[in-house]
Amino acid sequence: MKQQLAALLLGMAAWGVTHAADTPVYDRIAFTVSAEKEVPNDVLTAVLYAEQQGQDTAAMADSVNQAIAWAMGVAKQETAVEARTLDYTTNPMYTDSRITGWQVRQSIQLKSKDSKVLSGLLGKLQEKLRIEGINYSVSPEVQGGTEEELINTALANFKKRAEQIKTSMGRAEYRVARLDVQAANDFQPPMMRMAVMDAAPMAAPAPPSLESGKQKLKVNVQAEIELSIN
Which of 41, 50, 205, 215 is most buried when burial is the number of CB atoms within 10 A of its CB? Predict the structure, then answer.
């Protein structure tokens, strides 16, 4: 019985050695490739506000409300512009740690893909509102379509790099151990702040000149491959 068990164990050990010899051994190599493309900013976002300062909060609130209602009415006449109201605040004003007055303020946001229409609208609204800032960005539709294109390009770059490494190292094959595809496009251009005027706007100034410019969209592929040794 002991002789049979010993023979069985010896046979299993021999099989294990043979199986291990037949199993390829791999070296792991990590690298990163990317693809990028410059696209035009096709969405313009502007923030405007109405503000009053003084003692009579009820009168100031009424003035701000009227200015915002007027601005929204004008903005909604432009079908190419998306308009919505933002925050409404009433804050105390201090002098030597004492409340000496109040500030009432409300903002609106305008979005459009038509820079000419938005520029003309901003010129009209500056009759009663002030421009806080203007932001340029890429629309979700353009970003999504461009990222799909960049993912295909980045993966093609990965395959090319992996083959290059395999050939340069004189290996017969490689296999993918890890592959992370990431779009590195969370950056939002800062809003261009407009100069703050002390006096309330009296008449509509000339419309601002809007040049949207471009930005780069990028996709990164972080990869690890294993190269066969035998």
Answer: 50
* pTM recorded for the entire structure: 0.71
Residue 7 has pLDDT above 90, yes or no: no
| The pair of three-digit structure tokens given for residue 111, joined into one six-digit string | 């979005």
Q: What does the alpha-carbon distance between residue 56 and residue 188 come to, in Å, rounded to a whole number?
A: 39
Q: For residues 146 and 137, give the distance between their C-alpha atoms in angstroms, rounded to a whole number.
A: 14
User: Mean pLDDT score of the chain, rounded to an integer?
Assistant: 85
- The rounded distance, in Å, linking the Cα atoms of 154 and 79 is 39
**Phi-psi region at 135: left, alpha or beta (left = phi > 0; alpha = psi -120 to 50):** beta
Tens digits of per-residue pLDDT, 57-101? 999 999 999 999 999 999 999 999 999 999 999 999 999 999 999
Give residue for tokens 């009663």: 128
Are 57 and 102 spatial neighbours (Cβ–Cβ below 8 Å)? Answer: yes
> Angle at the Cα of 44 (from 182 to 185), degrees rounded to 5?
10
Q: Which of 214, 140, 226, 136 is CA-nearest to residue 183?
A: 140
CA distances to 24, 28, 38, 218 from 35, rounded to whole Å, are 33, 23, 11, 6
Nearest CA among 210, 146, 224 for reference residue 183: 146
Strand partners, 183: 219
